[in-house]
Write a structure and sequence with these properties.
Elements: H1 3-11, H2 18-29, H3 35-48, H4 52-63, E1 77-83, H5 91-101, E2 104-109, H6 120-124, H7 136-146, E3 148-151, H8 159-170, H9 177-189, E4 195-202, H10 211-227, E5 231-238, E6 246-247, H11 249-260, H12 266-283, H13 289-301, H14 304-315, E7 334-339, E8 344-349, H15 351-361, E9 377-380, E10 387-388, E11 393-399, H16 405-414, E12 415-418, E13 428-432
Parallel strand pairs: 1-2, 1-4, 2-3, 4-5
Antiparallel strand pairs: 5-13, 6-9, 7-11, 8-10, 8-12, 9-11
Helix pairs in contact: 1-3, 2-4, 4-9, 4-10, 5-11, 5-12, 5-14, 9-10, 12-13, 15-16
This protein binds uracil.
Length: about 425
């Protein structure tokens, strides 16, 4: 078999055999196929796509490049809820304890933030002493004790994805649906949770900017999950404005805790309720979304979800009292009010720009080696559809004396205001199940 023939076949829109896909990728991993040939193969995939069968082999080869994790001895129904990333996305912090309170568990890999999007690891690390599981054994132990297992470092899981992603990044082949789907799904399938819930974000703050592209990605990942016989649902959710009101690490912890106390922002609370309900449907505990939402509301109202979060924080080395005393978290004391210059309604928010403003304050990383400041960020007071009067605060920035004109300029370009009333946007755009 010759790599050049495989590239040529894909270039000419022919379907590759399992052996051909494995040959190029396994030998690339061993260092026996040069990057220029794999780059050319990726570009051929970018233009000509892959069938579900080809994609299954590609994904299987990626999974087999490293360790996989299963959970013998855990009798809980384990969920891997994954978001494709956005601004203010603190869903796992509120949702994992809800799964725990509903008698289920969470088992997943979690990432650090980069660019305008934050990462769950960074958010939890706002809590002093908090440590993520670093091994399969630690993950199993904490799932058994607290119902929540999040693993931080995962260099041994799907190492081929890291190598391929680095190459895609410099060859303009990141934005290919089959390559994104296999990259995300290989990391989900390598961890054997009982069900996968994918939250594909759509909009200005998301990786997928429009609904058609996002639906294509969600459908491809759903089919891939089914091809591996997995219990899976994909939701398409709004990222045309930040999720909830808080953006920035400690501030997002506070908002997630408040949500478990029943005081969360409407859009975030609803998303968490629907995701919780989806988990109950996948487990077979309820038949309808409405029944599932009722069960989620119950564990918020009776305080069980909050207790699960405290137990997870304690089990991870952090102080659970942060949930009752936010002064135990580092939150910047310097604030700046970004005020309305006239009266009107919020028509559009470029969530990516809001994420960038928070990143420039230090809440996120411009490059993967940057050190973040957990104390800074922003709180939105007005979202799409909200009315405001001249002088009202649109958002509050929490900063460490590093406010600068550039940040205000970004905010100025992030909002579109209208004099006429504007409809709010739906949080859930579609569900593929
Ligand atoms: N996230 C991933 O993990 N992989 C991609 O290719 C894109 C987003």
């Amino acid at each position: 078999m010759r790599v050049v023939d495989i590239i040529q076949k894909k270039r000419d829109k022919e379907i590759l055999t399992n052996e051909e896909i494995r040959f190029i990728l396994e030998n690339y991993q061993k260092g026996e196929v040069p990057e220029y040939q794999v780059a050319s193969f990726l570009m051929a995939v970018y233009f000509n796509g892959m069938t579900t069968a080809e994609l299954k082999t590609l994904t299987e080869t990626m999974i087999e490049s490293g360790d996989t994790i299963d959970f013998p001895g855990i009798d809980k129904f384990l969920i891997d809820k994954h978001s494709t990333g956005g601004v203010g996305d603190k869903t796992t912090i509120a949702l994992a304890p809800i799964f725990g309170a509903l008698g289920m568990g969470t088992a997943k890999l979690s990432g650090k933030g980069l660019g305008h999007t934050g990462g769950t690891i960074d958010k939890f690390e706002s809590i002093k002493g908090f440590k993520f599981s670093n091994s399969k054994e630690e993950l199993i132990k904490i799932v058994n004790e607290t119902g929540t297992g999040l693993m931080g470092q995962a260099d041994t899981i799907v190492p081929l994805d890291k190598k391929l992603y680095a190459l895609r990044d410099v060859t303009a082949t990141v934005s290919s649906i089959p390559l994104i789907a296999s990259s995300i799904m290989s990391k989900k399938l390598a961890v054997h949770a009982d069900a996968i819930i994918l939250d594909v974000k759509v909009g200005s703050g998301a990786f997928m900017k429009n609904l058609d592209e996002a639906r294509d990605l969600a459908t491809t990942m759903f089919k891939l999950g089914k091809a591996f016989d997995r219990n899976i649902v994909c939701m398409l959710t709004n990222m045309d404005e930040p999720l909830g009101n808080a953006v920035g690490n400690s501030l997002e912890i506070v908002e997630a805790v408040e949500t478990l106390k029943g005081n969360g922002p409407e859009d975030f609370t609803y998303l968490v309720e629907v995701l919780g309900a989806q988990a109950l449907i996948l487990k077979g505990d309820v038949k309808t979304l409405e029944d599932g939402i009722e069960r989620v509301k119950e564990v918020i109202e009776n305080g069980e979800a909050l207790l699960m979060l405290k137990s997870f924080i304690k089990g991870s080395g952090g102080n659970p009292e942060i949930c009752d005393d936010y002064s135990l978290l580092k939150i910047a004391t310097e604030t700046f009010e970004y005020k309305a210059k006239e009266s009107g309604f919020v028509k559009h928010i470029d969530a990516e720009k809001i994420g960038k403003a928070a990143m420039m304050l230090g809440a996120g990383r411009a490059t993967k080696d940057d050190i973040i400041d957990h104390s800074v960020g922003l709180i939105m007071h007005k979202k799409v559809g909200d009315e405001f009067k001249v002088g009202d605060s649109i958002l509050t920035l929490y900063h460490q004396n590093n406010m600068r004109d550039e940040i205000i300029e970004i905010l100025d370009s992030a909002f579109v205001f209208s004099r006429k009333k504007v409809e709010k946007i739906s949080t859930i755009l579609d569900i593929i199940s």
